[in-house]
What does this fold into?
Amino acid sequence: MRNHVEKRSPEWRRILEAQKNWRKLAAALEPYFDDFSKSGRRVERDYYLERIDKKHRYGLELERLHRIWLDQHVNHSGKKGLSLFRSLFRAFTRRRKPRLSFFDWLDKHEDKLAPTARGGVEYLDASDRHLYKARIDRGRIFLSPSALAVRDYLAQVGGRSDQLIFVVDENHQLYAAPKRVHQFQHTSFFAGAPVRMAGTLKTDAALRITVISSYSGHYAPTESDLEAFLSRLQNERTNLHRIQLQYYADNGDDKAELHADNWLRRRKPHTLRTRQMAEAPELPTAQQP
It folds into this structure.
């Protein structure tokens, strides 16, 4: 029995194709594994397909269709992780008839996507990202002079916006833009790369912030992320008492707070205790006589 695969055979071609696909996958996921990704918020697992997709179609829609594709190609019931990958490998390399990859299959069945998701989520590059720079000072949001699209949107709604999504980058720079469902999402700003914080702002006619929320399906910020963001705003002269807070607790509960400063005041003793416990020296164990 031969222990190698003959070159130019169908099986050999499938192996080469698999190697090519793994290289593409590694390149697509590279931003997730830089130094900042260890401390920043990575995209949630349900949205990885969006990042890998060349068209960046909306993640939850891709996840839904990916399950349909799996059902058609492999018996994956109850399988996860490595077990699922093994089943997929067998399904794609041990068949004489080549199987369609998920994205090739999706291109043939794009009508199964929600109409708004077919064009893909816009992913900005560095040359476009500066158009969405913003800062918050004393409770008001100030936009970059070049942020014409955001200014036009706010002018149309008279400044009163409940759809201004934002992210904070590694250097604490804020970026904000109006949300367009399935088209411009939190992943748009940094093309799915890690961020410090993500959420939504509501503003009044004077562009004063009235509500801050940590709602982001893509990044799912924790209470610690929210605390760090609010603490920085407070240090930069924002009156948090005038701002309402909406957030998901770490246990998954949907919560609200009338005054953001009250929540932050309650959080800080908890954070201090947690830090003290983490930094406490380990007590020596009693030695046997």
In short: The chain has two domains: 10-117, 126-278.
